[in-house]
Specification:
Helix content: 25-40%
Structural class: alpha+beta
Radius of gyration: 21 Å
Number of helices: 13
Strand order of the largest sheet: 4-3-2-1-5-6
Largest sheet: 6 strands, mixed
Order of helices and strands: EHEEHEHEHEHHEHHEEHEEEHEHEEHH
Oligomer: single chain
CATH architecture of the largest domain: 2-Layer Sandwich
Number of domains: 3
Strand content: 15-25%
Number of strands: 15
CATH superfamily of the largest domain: ATP-grasp fold, B domain
Length: about 375
């Protein structure tokens, strides 16, 4: 009988998407193939405390971890966590892990931070590397890569928090000279639509910039994609999503659509409301679907991604129905009812098999990386 691979499921974290991470991890732990994998849950509390065994399970169930009694086997700092990834480690009671599945949405989890730790420890992990993760988190850099790849994106500008705080009137004038209302104002480095506002006029732009500046030093302002309808409802862009899976030869799922119950798909519409409706597959022509799926793969490659990504698009609601690439999400929500797994379910790959495939892709990518030399020896 083949030996089971030891898979660390890493969840929680210090980001604003902590609770979403717990939901994703709980779903993965329930669905992962236990005949193939020995599973090691590893949690990170909101204050950055690393947890395994009983405390990790308690974190998943929503316990107030910070008041739980700590012992050496169940709580440690990040330096001890590194030891858990290398041979003969015992500080977290996990020993050597064969692969890590990080389910850390948002800051410190999908921005290249934790990926650097895995690279340092020379361990296989699910998802994109340091560069791809960083590019996939930074909306400013991401759009530069999309432009370089000649992918269609909406008109936008980027301003620094320091510029906005030093000269608010000058900043507003600059934005209004480059773009037309309505505008979407976003922190460059944050996920799940946190800190995002829609500004219909100058009166709303100032507060939107102030909100985004709370969450990042870079602020991305995008010109809204609208139709010719006079009402805010009929002029909303269609929000389309594609799940991409693979490493050097990625594949795209069927196209799905989210119909939000609010004016746009913000954090509340994603996680706190049951009014948003997913439509899988989206109602598109065969040509439109083919174009969007091809663009999703191109976006994946443009950002040097690996493993998985959800690629989001905006489509004009009427008229020419032009399609714009919006962004990539390198660690999308991963519950059984999240869009990424549902898109693959509709494409023919079930949830448990999807988890297995992602682990296999992590090992494939790690094996490929092991072929790279990091030292140089002069030939004799």
């Amino acid at each position: 009988m083949a030996k089971k691979l030891r898979v660390g499921i890493l969840f929680g974290g210090r980001s604003g998407e902590h609770e979403v991470s717990l939901l994703s991890a709980a779903s993965i732990l329930k669905a992962i193939d236990r005949k193939k994998f020995e599973v090691v849950p590893i949690g990170i509390s909101k204050t950055g405390r690393w947890l395994t065994e009983g405390n990790a399970a308690a974190l998943l169930e929503g316990a107030a971890i910070e008041v739980l009694p700590a012992d050496a086997a169940e709580a440690a700092g990040p330096s001890d966590a590194v030891a858990a990834l290398v041979p003969d480690a015992a500080s977290l009671g996990t020993g050597r892990l064969d692969v890590v599945f990080p389910v850390l949405h948002g800051t410190f989890g999908e921005d290249g931070t934790i990926q650097g730790l895995f690279e340092l420890a020379d361990i296989a992990y699910v998802g994109s590397g340091v560069l791809g993760s960083s590019a996939g988190m930074d909306k400013d850099v991401m759009k530069r890569l999309f432009s370089q790849a000649k992918l269609p994106i909406v008109k936008h500008v980027t301003v620094l928090r320091s510029e906005w705080e030093k000269s608010p009137r000058k900043t507003v004038t600059f934005i209004e000279s480059a773009l037309k209302y309505p505008l979407f104002v976003k922190p460059a480095n944050l996920g799940s639509s946190v800190g995002i506002s829609k500004a219909h006029d100058r009166k709303e732009l100032g507060p939107a910039l102030k909100l985004a500046a709370r969450f990042d030093r870079k602020i991305v302002i995008e010109q809204g994609v609208t139709g010719s309808g006079k009402s805010r409802t009929t002029s909303k862009a269609r929000e389309l999503e594609v799940a991409v899976l693979g490493n050097d030869d990625p594949k795209a799922s069927v196209v799905g659509e989210i119909i939000p119950d609010k004016e746009f798909y913000d954090y509340e519409a994603k996680y706190l409301s049951d009014g948003s409706v997913p439509v899988i597959p989206a109602k598109l022509t065969a040509a439109e679907s083919k174009q969007i799926r091809a663009m999703a793969v191109e976006a994946f490659r443009a950002c040097d991604l690996a493993g998985l990504a959800r690629v989001d698009f905006l489509m004009e609601p009427d008229g020419k129905r032009r399609i714009y690439l919006n962004e990539v999400n390198t660690l999308p929500g991963f519950t059984a009812i999240s869009m990424y797994p549902k898109l693959w379910q509709a494409t023919g790959l079930g949830y448990s098999d999807l988890i297995t495939t992602l682990i296999e892709l992590a090992l494939e990518r790690h094996n490929e990386r092991s072929r790279t030399s990091f030292t140089f020896e002069a030939s004799k």
